[in-house]
Amino acid sequence: MGASTRIGIGYDSHRFAPGGPLILGGVSIPADVSLIGHSDADAISHAVTDAVLGAAAAGDIGSLFPDSDEANNGRDSIEMLRSAVASVHALGFVVTNIDVTVVAEYPRVGPHAPAIRARLADALGVAVPAVSVKGKTNEGMGWIGRGEGIACIAVATITSER
Ligand code: MG
Q1: d(Cα 74, Cα 65) in Å, to the nearest integer?
Q2: What are the residue ranges spanned by the domains of the chain?
Q3: What's the gap in Å between 16 CA and the centre of ligand 1?
Q4: Ligand 1 center–CA 162 separation, angstroms
Q5: Distance 129 CA to ligand 1 centre (A)
Q6: pLDDT tens-place string over residues 38-88
């Protein structure tokens, strides 16, 4: 049998709270808001983790790291991503590429995209060109437009030689 490619999608959102910094894709971004959540609320890392797990049909971030477990309180989301990648490797897959869209009125993600791509690539075990991070606003519409929080959508492809 030849290589097979599979695709996964991940989505995450988190609410803003006053006072920075904001952790996105494992990078601390200077901002006057932060993200609230049980872990470090890193919405990029959570969406990417779910995309990778989804591609392998290996569950989701909530099943691997339940809110009910105190050990997950304030947990480093890049470490959760590394753990998800390890479980996908154990199933015989490697990550091929990742594409992420961040939807938020602020902060602007573009200036931080190179650092985020490097951090994600390291956790994913891929080269930086295999990781894409794009930012856009929601044109002022809805909860994102009102600056209540941030949403991230990620797609992952993984391949198996089996
Ligand atoms: Mg989350």
Answers
A1: 12
A2: 5-160
A3: 12
A4: 32
A5: 25
A6: 788 999 999 999 999 999 999 999 998 888 888 777 789 999 999 999 999
